[in-house]
């Protein structure tokens, strides 16, 4: 459990660095993508500086992850992580777009709909066109 702002900033910074390294990118590359100095990226990654919501959005788009990637999970009550493979193995699951549009518009759902990482990536690709 994260109890302080400093711990929260360090947690976010650790995930920024982890994802950047997964992509084999430098701090300079990320800095150029979001229009800051590489020193600022160092501060984010160390947790000595926090990020604004907008800056975190820019970072998430540059690193091709959902903003939720940076936050501790589970963030939602009764949140369960499900892989794309697990969804495909469920023979009773309706994968038609029409079904999910109806589900999304159904205000009576007691639990929030949670997208798989693959679905989030597809959504991010569509959203990133607006920003970059």
Report on the structure:
The chain has 132 residues and is mostly helical. Helix content is 57%, strand content 0%. It has a single domain, classed as 434 Repressor (Amino-terminal Domain), CATH 1.10.260. The chain has 7 helices and no strands.
- Strand element count: 0
Regions with little confidence, pLDDT below 50 for 5+ residues: 123-132
Assigned CATH architecture:
Orthogonal Bundle
How would you spell out the order of helices and strands?
Answer: HHHHHHH
Distance between the termini: 34 Å
What spatial form do the alpha-carbon principal axes imply? globular
Taking all residues together, what is the mean pLDDT? 74
Can you summarize the main beta sheet? none
- How much is the radius of gyration in Å? 17 Å
CATH class: Mainly Alpha
Per DSSP, the total helix count is 7
Topology:
Layout: H1 5-22, H2 27-34, H3 38-46, H4 53-62, H5 84-89, H6 97-105, H7 117-131
Concise summary:
The protein is mostly helical.
Task: Identify the notable features of this structure and list them briefly.
132 residues, mainly alpha, 434 Repressor (Amino-terminal Domain)
């Amino acid at each position: 459990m994260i109890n302080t702002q400093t711990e929260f900033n360090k947690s976010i910074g650790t995930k920024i660095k982890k994802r950047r390294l997964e992509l084999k990118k430098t701090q300079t590359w990320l800095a150029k993508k979001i229009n800051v100095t590489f020193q600022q990226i160092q501060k984010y990654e160390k947790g000595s500086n926090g990020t604004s919501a907008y800056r975190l959005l820019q970072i998430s788009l540059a690193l091709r992850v959902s903003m939720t990637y940076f936050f501790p999970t589970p963030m939602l009550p009764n949140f369960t992580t499900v892989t794309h493979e697990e969804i495909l193995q469920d023979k009773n699951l309706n994968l038609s777009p029409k079904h999910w549009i109806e589900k999304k518009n159904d205000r009576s759902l007691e639990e929030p709909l949670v997208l798989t990482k693959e679905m989030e990536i597809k959504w991010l690709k569509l959203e990133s066109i607006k920003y970059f």
